[in-house]
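Hello again, I could really use a second opinion on something today. I've been staring at a protein lately and its backbone has me curious. You're getting the sequence in one-letter code plus the fold written as C-alpha cells. I'd be grateful if you could look everything over and explain what you see. No rush at all, and the record is pasted right below:
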Amino acid sequence: MDMNQANILVCDDEVEVADLLKHVLEREGFAVTCCHSGDAALTLLNAQVFDLAILDIMMPGIDGFEVCRRARQFTDIPIIFLSAKDDEADRLVGLHLGADDYVVK
C-alpha cells in the first residue's frame, strides 16, 4: 500500500451500497475500510487513523448523527454524510453536529 494513499472509512448498513462505494473508491486509488453499524464505525475510528469518514444516517442502533457527534469528541477528520434523507432539516442537523458535507443518495 502506498504510504500516501488516503484511508477512508465507509459506514452504511446497506452492504451493497458500502461495497459499491468501496469498489469505486479503491479504483480511484484509495484504501477503504467498510463497516455496517454505528458501533463498528466508532470502534474503527478509535482504533485506526482515517483521512475521511463517509457515514450513512439511518442505521440500526447508533445512527450516523450520533456517530458524528461522538467522533467529534476525539477526531477532526472530514466526515461526509451519504443519506437517503433529503430534508433540509436533516442537512442542517448533520452540519451542526460537525459533518463537513451532506450528500443525498
Q: What stands out?
A: Residues 15-27 form the longest helix (13 residues).
